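Figure 3 (text version): structure tokens given as input.
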């Protein structure tokens, strides 16, 4: 607590300041948190009014003084993060025996949700559909790593939240991607698509894996994957064709809207339909040319 017999000590000053830099880092990572602030204090309390603490799902940054008051605040904040509660709240605490504290004072805390949960999307391929899609997903709660072997295919300016990665080894890049990422494969090369599929399916932590292409391509890949020892449950994690049924069409922008709709449905908790038994034109992304011709979705 701030010095009772003089100016605040160095430790107190640190607690008041270190949350500022941490908040900027959380914002950059797209990680939500709850800011807990001591709004008012009366009598003997662990920290003065204005003291702040940040609570994420896995971290506590700074402190409002420890003890049962802080424990209660952390529990409330994590409950808000878990349920997605976006509404600020104010709580009053009597720091007596009932709360397990002997301070005897009273504290009023505000709990303010900050930021929105962001997902990490790995977009592989910089073709026509990817270019159309990037403008949509950059407005959604996604941080995007956009990978292609061809630097010339990327636009000169990228939307906020999109990181370009030019790599001669896109397959190798998969191993370094964050846990629980979303993956969209839409490269210009079917063999590369297959190698990417293998590497992605080797991970046990993918949130979503979609590959652009027709049902014919899907069936070929299913067979090739099974021949290489992948069981049906693992193969089923690959979504192909991709896109929601309600949006049909071959234009890159139409396909991009369809694919974005599926991503939104997924992170909102709507199960993705099984596309393996779909008809050739059952979803927008199935409206591709055959695998032996130029695919308008990826060219």
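Below: residues designed for each position.
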């Amino acid at each position: 607590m701030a010095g009772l017999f003089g100016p605040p000590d160095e430790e107190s000053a640190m607690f008041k300041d270190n949350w500022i830099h941490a908040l900027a880092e959380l914002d950059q990572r797209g990680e939500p948190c709850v800011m807990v602030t001591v709004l008012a204090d009366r009598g003997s309390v662990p920290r003065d009014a204005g003291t702040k603490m940040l609570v994420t799902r896995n971290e506590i940054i700074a402190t409002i003084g420890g003890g049962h008051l802080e424990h209660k605040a952390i529990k409330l904040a994590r409950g808000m993060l878990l349920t997605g509660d976006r509404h600020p709240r104010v709580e009053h605490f009597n720091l007596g025996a009932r709360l397990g504290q002997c301070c005897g004072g009273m504290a009023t805390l505000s709990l303010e949700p900050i930021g929105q949960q962001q997902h990490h999307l790995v977009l592989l391929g910089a073709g026509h559909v990817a270019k159309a899609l990037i403008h949509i997903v950059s407005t959604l709660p996604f941080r995007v790593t956009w990978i292609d072997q061809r630097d010339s295919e990327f636009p000169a300016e990228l939307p906020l939240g999109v990181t370009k990665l030019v790599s001669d080894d896109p397959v190798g890049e998969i191993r370094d991607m964050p846990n629980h990422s979303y993956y969209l494969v839409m490269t210009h090369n079917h063999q590369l698509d297959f190698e990417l599929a293998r590497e992605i399916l080797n991970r046990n932590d993918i949130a979503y894996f979609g590959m652009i292409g027709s049902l014919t391509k899907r069936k070929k890949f299913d067979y090739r994957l099974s021949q290489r020892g992948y069981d049906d449950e693992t193969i089923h994690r690959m979504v192909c064709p991709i896109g929601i049924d309600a949006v049909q069409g071959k234009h890159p922008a139409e396909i991009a809207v369809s694919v974005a709709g599926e991503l939104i449905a997924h992170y909102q908790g709507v199960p993705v339909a099984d596309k393996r038994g779909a008809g050739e034109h059952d979803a927008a992304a199935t409206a591709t040319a055959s695998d032996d011709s130029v695919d308008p979705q990826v060219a």
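Residues 1-15, 278-299 have pLDDT under 50 and may be disordered.
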